[in-house]
């Protein structure tokens, strides 16, 4: 008992993190579920008689959840500060569930079932936006929760587990989409007809099951010690810290937290503009390099390379497995190598992969070379900007402005995501080669930005951030 008290319980910490990262899994699941359904959605709504379903409308429909992500990210700071990190995640779980059921039946048991119309399109996008709000909340609060609950020496690893969960959620939904499509049976034409009828609905409904699990599990985790201390609930904060870190270390951490909390109530720019600008640019570059174009439109991209529909879905699963492997690389290196080296290495790899893909598109070369280029690009992202950006956003801001600053950074990230994803169909119609060149240029710019302006935060406590930014 005393030994456990001295060291803290690693099992307790892991169980908390595992419950919290289901929010990350749902983040990945919700954002990627549309990849298997988007072509069937296009055919379904193209059959509407009261409006014309244009390519712009399709781009908006595929990306509409991102509007909710912007909203969820923007309000995450208010909710996390006023209601707490835990309750914010409970709200996110409810939103995920409502979105899954609503997207499955956008007619809402009011409109004629299975008849495409403008009203059904509006309701479908409404439910997707509801889910997006859940994603926006989870994307901000899950890393914040894990960062605030974790010891400094393994914080990067544990926050990176959230990115692993995001990518795992994407892999799961790629596989689920593949299984749903193949469960429809029959010929290729019959499968496609069934996809337009019920396939895409089942894909969205499948999210309801992990959403329900997340809701019940998140009720069992504690609030973070830093939030409890901010609210003056020192006894509860210390109790959680002791269970995680042991008596001696817990008291030291608690004193450091109280020292920052007892400073004046900070305004957003109390530590200067640089920390906010760096957080915003980290979010911007993570999206401007084009990663979600590849994730959202993966089956379509592989189909354009000449793969059959079934083969393109399977290649998407393979890509998901590669993403998992390289996210694990980041998890095991982020606290050893550091944040900056991983980001710069990833930017270089993404530049090479996207430049090669652009050149192949220009010469109309398809097949293995294009697939390899995409894998190089996504693998480079998953070992760097995927997890490390979230690690930095969760840890670079001082305690007293973290909720506000994270909310701004996450909102910018989702705005950037929406702009990049929704413009891809139009940009690719203009020039596929040119579109990929834009993303390659952004990858180069991201490397320069990290090298010049992003500080290294490895081995620093969250309380050290106050000192770091006051010196600048």
From TrEMBL:
Pfam families per record: Sugar_tr (PF00083)
Domain Major facilitator superfamily (MFS) profile: 16-458
PANTHER family with a match to the protein in the record: D-XYLOSE-PROTON SYMPORTER-LIKE 2 (PTHR48023:SF4)
Signal peptide region: none
Protein's UniProt keywords contain RNA-binding: no
SUPFAM superfamilies: MFS general substrate transporter (SSF103473)
A single GO cellular-component term on record: plasma membrane
Localization in the cell: Cell membrane
Record membrane topology: Multi-pass membrane protein
PROSITE patterns, per database record: MFS, SUGAR_TRANSPORT_1, SUGAR_TRANSPORT_2
Protein name: D-xylose transporter XylE
Family named by the database record: Belongs to the major facilitator superfamily. Sugar transporter (TC 2.A.1.1) family.
GO molecular function, one term: transmembrane transporter activity
Chain coiled-coil ranges: none
Transmembrane spans: 12-36, 56-81, 88-106, 126-146, 158-180, 200-221, 274-298, 313-334, 341-362, 368-393, 405-423, 429-451
Entry keyword set: Cell membrane, Membrane, Sugar transport, Transmembrane, Transmembrane helix, Transport
Species of origin: Candidatus Cryptobacteroides merdavium
InterPro entries: MFS_dom (IPR020846), MFS_sugar_transport-like (IPR005828), MFS_Sugar_Transporter (IPR050820), MFS_trans_sf (IPR036259), Sugar/inositol_transpt (IPR003663), Sugar_transporter_CS (IPR005829)
